[in-house]
Amino acid sequence: MSGDEMPWNTRPANTGNLILIGMMATGKSSVGAVLAEQLGYELVDLDHEIIRKEGRSVSEIFAEEGEGYFRAVETEVLRQTVQSSRQVIATGGGAVLAPVNRGMMIENGIVVALSATAEDIISRVAGDNKRPLLAGNAEERVRRILEERKDAYSFAHCTVDTTDLSAAQVSLHILMHYRVLAFKHVG
């Protein structure tokens, strides 16, 4: 492979979407809003789309239907969303768990993983009772989920550590990566 060629997982068919993945509280929604404004793209927050489709909160969906149902709806909403382009798509933290979702993401945009230290995530979610996966001991749950998902975000085209950075700083890092990756896919 020459230096100009890229591995298969860095060749999206559609570079018109910028897809943000990562653990909860890594800044996907807030960074997504900044990026959408800077790029002139539409912001699509998958969790908000699921809430709109279902007419109830994520916590209510988890409580009433279970995580399996939520993940199925998440896949359906993602499938509909990636049909368009010129979007910044902020996914839920667990959207990467389904292989079909990872495939849709990598085929339909530039995928950027946002990461943060466990301590930073814990401080960001402190007192947040709207995250169903954190019921009980939030610190213990965050560490367990991080361990379980440590390789789940590795398919991304690049990773940006959001620890101690503002949404504007993170978006600047992402824009540099995005423009380079999108340019390599043109022509």
UniProtKB/TrEMBL annotation:
Keyword Magnesium (UniProt): yes
Residue positions binding substrate: 47, 71, 93, 149
- Sorted alphabetically, which InterPro entries does this protein's record hold? P-loop_NTPase, Shikimate/glucono_kinase, Shikimate_kinase/TSH1, Shikimate_kinase_CS
Cofactor(s) of this protein: Mg(2+)
Quote one Gene Ontology molecular function term: shikimate kinase activity
Can you state the subunit structure given in the record? Monomer.
Name of the protein this chain belongs to: Shikimate kinase
Organism source for this protein? Answer: Paenibacillus sophorae
Lineage of the organism:
Bacteria, Bacillati, Bacillota, Bacilli, Bacillales
